[in-house]
Amino acid sequence: MPVFKIQHITRYDYDRPVRESVNEVRIFPYAGGEQEILQQELIITGHPGLHYFQDYWQNKVAVFNLAEPHMEMVIESRLTVRTNPSGPSPQHFSNGRDILQQDVDGNIQLLELNSPDPIAGQAAIDEIVKQVDQPWKSIATMVQECNQFIFVHFKYIKGITDIETTVDEILEHRSGVCQDFAHVMLQMLRTMGIPSRYVSGYICPNKNGMRGEGATHAWVEAWIPGHGWAGIDPTNNVWVTRDHVKLAVGRNFTDCTPVKGTFKGPAHQKLQVYVSVGYEDGHVFEEMNRVTMQELPSTQPVEDLMESFDSQQQQQQ
Q: How far apart (Å, rounded) are the C-alpha atoms in residues 29 and 84?
């Protein structure tokens, strides 16, 4: 059972003082038997008081207000986590649509997670689904085939998409990063009526060349009848392993944003995200991601300006 030490630093720099920065933070490992928090410390500029709650998706959230004027804000998580064996592989569960329907009936969250979003390119999704959705296949088999389709037919290229890139745009150029592939797979699974949810977290490097290692990462969980939620990673064409550390789940990336909030002030801002993963043997893997932030129009009023900024700018790799 591997133990990882993960340091995650989110740093905002402003070109002039801002104030009343109110934020939500979702960088706490998701509660479950597949992982155990051994220690976690959250260090924030100004040491504001933290209020904790669980959101609709059962993610742990911390809320704080940095009221005093400031020109930088740093949110640092120091986490030690142990990942545990997850039990039988989802592939071993052969249940099909009849059992899935029994699970979904009357379950509000599963019903909410099994309907696709309206997109212009739904016909392209339908064509892909026709190759996968067959009545004799188990739900687990169809999930795995969707996963493999994305891995084979979509190219992993950093920098060509951002947090505002739509599923339609991803389908058009067939390229992107883990966040994009997760959103496409969610559209495919929900088109088939399979409840599925977005997952944010990390892949801890294990020297096998998995894409997204050592940075914030994204994958999908699908509801497998008889098994429950099962994680699967279309960026790497694998069911989740003990090297995946789960932070948050939701219908899409917006529900899992690591940091989001608002501040008062006309400042332009810069964002840097740093992640390091350490092992019990002392080896450390590091990743730095500089993110381009949208600038404010100079015509906006100064005193009453409330600019919303989401860590959706922290695009997952």
A: 13
Token code pair at residue 35: 């992982």
Adjacent-strand bridge partners of 229? 223
SS3 222: strand
Please check whether residue 215 is in contact with residue 201, taking contact to mean a CB–CB distance below 8 angstroms.
no
DSSP 19: E
Q: Where are the domains of the chain?
A: 3-83+256-313, 90-255
Say if CB 242 and CB 83 are below 8 A apart: yes
Identify the CA nearest to 221 among candidates 257, 192, 180, 252.
252
Amino acid at 30: Y
Pairing of strands 228-233, 269-279: unpaired
* Tokens (6 digits) for 278: 């350490």
Q: Are 309 and 75 in contact (CB under 8 A)?
A: no
* pLDDT tens-digit series, residues 7-44: 999 999 999 999 999 999 999 999 888 899 999 999 99
| CATH topology assigned to domain 3-83+256-313 | Immunoglobulin-like (2.60.40)
* The token pair that represents 195 in the structure block: 């409840």
User: Which CATH fold would you assign to the domain 90-255?
Assistant: C8orf32 fold (3.10.620)
Q: How many CB atoms lie within 10 A of CB 12?
A: 27
Q: What are phi and psi of 169, to 5 degrees?
A: -70, -40
Coil, helix or strand at residue 168: helix
Predicted confidence (pLDDT) per residue in 172-205, tens digit: 999 999 999 999 999 999 999 999 999 999 988 6
Q: 41: which 2 tokens? A: 């410390």
